[in-house]
Amino acid sequence: MKLAPSSFYYKPKTATAEQLQSSADLRDQIEAICLDFPGYGYRRVTAQLKRDHRIVNHKKVLRLMRESDLLCRLKRRKTRTTNSKHHFPRYPNLIKGKAINKLNQVWLADITYIRIRTGFVYLAAILDAYSRKVIGYTVSRGLETELTLAALRMAIARRRPQFGVIHHSDQGVQYAADEYIAELRNYGFEISMARTGTPYENATMESFFKTLKYEEVNLCEYETYEDVIERIPYFIEAVYNQKRLHSGIGYLSPEEFESWLLNQKVTRESRQALLTSSVQS
Fold first, then answer.
1. Cα separations (Å) of 162 from 101, 159, 189, 257, 271?
2. Does an H or E element contain 32, and which?
3. Which residues, listed in sequence order, are joined to residue 122 by a DSSP beta bridge?
4. For residues 129 and 126, what is the distance between their CA atoms, to the nearest angstrom?
5. pTM across the whole model
6. Pairing mode, if any, of strands 134-140 and 119-128?
7. Which of 4, 46, 111, 254 lies at a C-alpha separation of 20 to 30 Å from 121?
8. Are 147 and 174 contacting, i.e. CB atoms less than 8 angstroms apart?
9. Residues 23-61 pLDDT 10s
10. Judging by beta carbons within 10 Å of its beta carbon (0-12, 13-18, 19+), is residue 205 exposed, middle or buried?
11. CB atoms < 10 A from the CB of 262, how many?
């Protein structure tokens, strides 16, 4: 009959009650993670499960998420926030090809829109390029320079940076205006701008805004400006900075990553102090 001998000996596998219960528990755990983080794909869900001491293969997570219809479906809605037609000076891109390896080396800035029932409001944000942490942000009904200045001043008050930090943005009028540039000069920033029409030159900011839209804004469908100013700070501070896992920093949250960096620095300084005291003695 030209059948392989293994066909005769094959016995279909039947899951035990214990295996069925374990699979059900895993599915419930995955659903709980997706409820907290609706934009998580199967890789981040797998990383979160491992942090929760649940060892599981990412392929199984993908299968269970697909069976339970938990794979996120992304929507794209766009409006223009960058006006590059102005008379203010433009600056070269200082971060292209640059290795970013410490905090407060490069700050990334950009603006996005948030749709409400009566129109749009706008969010300006600043990220530390190394830790992906949002260090400054503000929401406004308009796109004036005061929007970006408020976010910058929050970031400066929080980080108190030394001179030489690279501030990278697009060439929009809000970042090129005299008042904004004067503020950067006053605190010793180096000014960097992406070329017009090249959003990939500020890709980390684009990634943050995509996360914000898919995991918060598009799910909440804000009605009013008050809804926005109530929810956005919560998402940024309590979810994005403290809880959300980032693949670019080893599946840690920005707060965890910065705490880890601080502990590493303290360890190095303690070791150096111990070596110094030993040499002196």
1. 16, 9, 9, 21, 25
2. helix 17-36
3. 113, 140
4. 9
5. 0.71
6. antiparallel
7. 254
8. yes
9. 777 877 888 887 777 778 788 888 888 888 888 888 888
10. buried
11. 11
